[in-house]
Write a structure and sequence with these properties.
- The chain is an alpha+beta fold and 227 residues long.
- It has two domains: 132 residues, Glutaredoxin (3-Layer(aba) Sandwich), CATH 3.40.30.10; 53 residues, Antioxidant, Horf6, Chain A, domain2 (Antioxidant, Horf6, Chain A, domain 2), CATH 3.30.1020.
- It contains eight helices and ten strands.
- A five-stranded mixed beta sheet has the order 5-4-3-6-7. Strands 8-10-9 form a three-stranded antiparallel beta sheet, with no helix packed on it.
- The protein is elongated, with a radius of gyration of 20 Å.
Length: 227
């Protein structure tokens, strides 16, 4: 990963290195590598503006789910074009009014270097406000997933956590995850890549796996099966 802030004209893609950032935040100067170098995942998310109602509901939920992000070894990092002083005032206002603690840093992207590097500003929507982008970055600094929401739609925090849980489960078990998967559900076994292996899977009925057809097989993970 580059040690310099990178400006690109397109949205970074899945399985590409995350552009490095060196930015001022409510927790001081930070880089993505500050977290990934310690083995943490990073959820880099943008919001249009401080002191706005939809963004406030998101920050409340991110704060309330702090322990869930901690359990998954995920570091949330917020970013918008507002100043450090606006961020601090808004975070303090949220904590006072809604009785939650905001543990994560919020980047003051006044020069829009972070927003441009990650393609967070969509000119058709606004020339300055970032859309609600979310980048899921693994401990190797690789972008594993990304989501974009319009300005008027708040994000589903359960889904963000589910994505991290699914990515980590897939990495640890060399499997794929079906639609609507949640922790404890069966996972998808990779399909055979030779005709002989396909015939073997069907003939053996998967060796305890749930074989619907040669290409469609599910199984319960050992830990989940023991629960």
């Amino acid at each position: 990963m580059s040690t310099e802030t990178t400006t690109v004209s397109r949205i970074p893609r899945i399985n590409e290195p995350a552009p490095e950032i060196h930015a001022k935040s409510t927790h001081g100067m930070i880089r993505i590598t500050d977290y990934t170098s310690k083995g943490k995942w990073v959820m880099l998310f943008s919001h249009p503006a401080d002191f706005t109602p939809v963004c406030t509901t998101e920050f409340i939920e991110f704060a309330r789910r702090h322990q869930d992000f901690e359990r998954l070894n995920v570091q949330p990092v917020g970013v918008s074009v507002d100043s450090i002083y606006a961020h601090i005032a808004w975070v303090r206002n949220i904590e006072e009014n809604f009785k939650v603690k905001v543990h994560f840093p919020v980047i003051a992207d006044l020069d829009q270097k972070v927003a441009q590097a990650f393609g967070m500003v969509h000119e058709a929507v606004s020339d300055t406000a970032t859309v609600r982008a979310v980048f899921f970055i693994d401990p190797k600094g690789t972008i594993r997933a990304l989501l974009y929401y319009p300005l008027n739609l708040g994000r589903n925090v359960d889904e963000l956590l589910r994505v991290f849980e699914a990515l980590q489960t897939a990495d640890q078990n060399a499997c794929a995850l079906p639609a609507n998967w949640k922790l404890g559900d069966p996972v998808i076994v990779p399909a055979p890549i030779t005709q002989a292996d396909a015939e073997k899977r069907v003939a053996s009925n998967g060796g305890g796996q749930d074989v619907t057809d040669w290409y469609f097989t599910k199984k319960k993970l050992a830990a989940a099966a023991a629960d």
